[in-house]
């Protein structure tokens, strides 16, 4: 009887871990796509995805998600800085 219970509980925990990985991947893709267009979307999506990826890095292979989120946040930050510099007149086109 105990063996059946252990198998059942392991199946539930395995499926729960896989469901946490999907939102992280979706948010990573959204953040990477909007990095150059709308940095505010990238900040919110990539920050949440980065936290989820770091939190679950031992249960999933999320190294690539961490790297892509960091790159997307860096590009969004550069986009924001250049936009502010253009608005202030530091850079002229």
């Amino acid at each position: 009887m105990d063996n059946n219970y252990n198998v059942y509980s392991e199946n539930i925990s395995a499926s729960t871990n896989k469901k946490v990985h999907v939102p992280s991947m979706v948010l990573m893709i959204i953040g990477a796509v909007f990095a150059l267009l709308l940095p505010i979307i990238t900040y919110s999506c990539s920050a949440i995805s980065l936290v989820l990826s770091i939190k679950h890095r031992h249960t999933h292979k999320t190294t690539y998600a961490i790297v892509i989120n960091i790159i997307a946040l860096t590009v969004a930050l550069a986009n924001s800085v250049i936009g502010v510099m253009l608005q202030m007149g530091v850079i002229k086109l």
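The mean pLDDT is 82. The helical segments are 2-33, 39-55, 63-88.
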